[in-house]
Amino acid sequence: MRTRLNDLVKERLGTFGLIAPSIAQCAVGAAIAWVVAIELLGHPRPFFAPISVLICVGVGLGQRLRRVVELVVGVSLGVGVGDLLVSWIGSGAWQLALVVGLAMTVAVLLNSGALFVAQAGSSAVLVATLVPTEGAGGLDRMADALTGGVIGIAAVALLPASPFAIAAKHLSAVLDALSTVLEQAAQAIERRDADLAAEALEEARTTQTAVEEFGAALQTSKEITMISPLHWHRRARLSRHETAAVPVDLALRNARVLARRTLSSLGEASPPPAALAEAMREVSEAALLLQLELGAGREPTLARQALLAVAARERPRELGFSAHVIIAQLRSVVVDLLQATGMDHVEATAALTPLDEPARRD
Fold first, then answer.
1. CB atoms within 10 A of CB 96
2. Which of 17, 82, 247, 312 could pair covalently with 127 via S-S, beta carbons 3.0-4.6 A apart?
3. Does residue 286 share a domain with residue 335?
4. Where are the bilayer-spanning segments (predicted)?
5. Whether 183 and 221 share a structural domain
6. Domain total for the chain?
7. Residue 362 — very low, low, confident or very high, per pLDDT cuts 50/70/90?
8. For the chain, what percent of residues have pLDDT higher than 90?
């Protein structure tokens, strides 16, 4: 129980370490937007300036820069349309329906993105129901929203989260998932345990979420290095994660087929030999090596050497159908991971032992 609590605390602290820069962006950006709107624009209560900062930075944690811009413009549009109409027709149920309908209609005509339209409508609701119009001009709050949005984007650029840490954390989760699937499949073969093989298959089926989260994190990291001068020098370091993105996705897809065939093979007359489990475990360990080396920002030479050793290993003979499929998928995983280390496809494929020749032991 204490171990699980310690692990949970470590996980939360690690998450906080990644999110802390964004908290600082929100806090500092909101204060600056408030001061700018009061001192430079002369608005006495610029409610939407700090709110726009929070919305902009919050979306910027895991969304594309284009969506951040859409959100800022959507806020400004909703505030502008809502403020102008409410100042003319007042507040009430039918006024609310009219304001929201017009704001969203204008948003659809300008940009059909769901986030853009929804933000325009929700901002119009705020203006029509919560914010009094006395003492503010029809375009004042629209200017506040734009000011806050610009300052929010500047905060992402000048007080950014570490792009390398964001990408490394999510790639680590993908490689850890791959290693776990291969290790569980190897144990299932060694123990002739169909239940354990079923667990490996279930684990493999849940890995796509990690891949998708890594893709989003990598996109966010690339955008930070694009807009933030503080992290321009990290582009080369981040390129290793870009190189690994597609191959590790393919490796996990092949691992899913491998796990399914592992379960099938345990019901055949000739189950897979222990040597196949040993090869799986070696690939699993190589995936962890790749995780460590890329996480440290190093060239993954040790992982590449380990994978090349597996690729040259002698294959078991006289296997059942499912076992042959397992070997084919494991070879594909090896090729994928070699490409993740930086090798091209032709070179990685050439490293495999030819199917019609026995391999040589070093």
1. 17
2. 82
3. yes
4. 12-37, 43-61, 68-90, 96-118
5. yes
6. 2
7. very low
8. 25
